[in-house]
Amino acid sequence: MTIARAAVLLLIAVVTACAGTLKATGPPDPALERAALENTAPTQPLRIVFDWHMRERDGRFRGQGVARVEPPDRARIDLFGPRGDGLLSAAIVDGDVRLPSAQQTVDLPPPPMMWAVLGVVEPPQSARLISTARKDDRVQLLYLDGGGRLRYDLDRGRLRGVQWDGPGNRRYTVQLEGDSLRLPDKAVYRDWAGYVELVIELKQVQDVDPYPPETWNPAR
Prior knowledge:
- With 220 residues, this protein is of the alpha+beta class.
- It has three helices and twelve strands, in the order H-H-E-E-E-E-E-H-E-E-E-E-E-E-E.
- The protein is globular.
- It starts with a helix and ends in a 13-residue tail after the last strand.
């Protein structure tokens, strides 16, 4: 790791620590969870266009992407390279990730992180709410799921950050900025153990008609 990269990661760690002063240590409040789910849930089919760029151990990559969302629990993300060539297609249906057979070995973010990039609070069905906290307009929800801990941070009803910590020092985070397009203007996903950073910047959000069923089966 270069000195510059180490400095950047250290800065990120400091900022993340400072932003986490609200701690969910009290007993769980179902009303806070219900409000977070309702306020961030998609309410109509959307087509979302975005730019993306990624840094990892082997280099840097960039391109454009399209996300398709349909309430209550369907989303699909397609990533394209600089020349428009398709790089990845993935759909989430009721918590189940669907990939084309040729991409079955792709290491994708956990579904809660994929939803979080769109500003949606969508914990796994198996997750258990163990604690909540509220201070002014800020709310924090803490879940336990499969030996890991999943934390959602909201401000004024909008999702602003998600962190999942699991066994083996695994950590995933999503930080969100802005809301001029009804969804977060910018999302930064990080796999800390894998040294992966993916930045997504929204360009366009459109209301659309419901998608045909085959949309949610990218293998076809």
